[in-house]
Design goal:
The protein has six helices and ten strands; from the N terminus they run αααββββαββαββββα. The protein is α+β, with helices and mostly antiparallel strands and 174 residues long. A hairpin with a 4-residue loop joins strand 2 (53-57) and strand 3 (62-65). The radius of gyration is 19 Å and the shape is globular. Mean pLDDT is 89; it is low at 1-13.
């Protein structure tokens, strides 16, 4: 009997963090496809209805599902960068890398931008790459997500800005 008890699988007991929710079943595959928690961060709300859509905030984005759309348009990241009014005039472009709508995409952001389907999920750029002295990092805002690279990390270590936390604001303060 002791041998059988020792072999019985047990689930580790985890205490949920305040303000962290399960990703709704509607979004699980989409969430995983885009990079899951390591990229989008944890879900910070339950799924909710927004107009005809079902949406759910993650730390770094707002995932939405339109049941009336077809194909790849059924799932999308809401353009929080536009809602947050992060757009600036492109001005003069200097540097090497792809240029989209007059904005240079920072070279280290290109692989992640491409992995997110470019404009399909990341959206179009809203700003040129910029240095944030407070956080010692390069940042660039896009329609649906924002990118950053801490300069004290190895080259190619790119992360998403917390658009979801910023946009959700008072509704997500736990």
């Amino acid at each position: 009997a002791l041998v059988l008890i020792g072999c019985t699988p047990t689930r580790p007991q985890t205490t949920p963090q305040p303000g962290v929710f399960e990703v709704d079943p509607v979004f699980r595959e989409f969430y995983r496809m885009l990079g899951g928690e390591p990229l989008l961060g944890p879900a910070i709300t339950r799924a909710f209805r927004f107009e005809a859509n079902i949406c759910q905030y993650t730390q770094n984005a707002l995932m939405c599902f339109n049941p009336y759309a077809e194909g790849h348009k059924r799932f999308y990241l809401f353009p929080l960068g536009q809602v947050l009014n992060l757009r600036e005039d492109p001005g003069l472009v200097s540097g090497e890398g792809p240029i989209v709508n007059g904005y240079l995409i920072y070279e280290e952001f290109v692989p992640l931008y491409d992995r997110l389907g470019g404009a399909l999920y990341a959206g179009h750029p809203l700003t040129q790459p910029r240095y944030n002295a407070t956080h010692n990092r390069i940042e660039q805002y896009f329609e649906n997500v924002g990118f950053y690279r801490n300069l004290d990390e190895p080259p190619g270590s790119v992360h998403l800005l917390a658009y979801g936390v910023f946009a959700c604001d008072a509704y997500c303060r736990y």
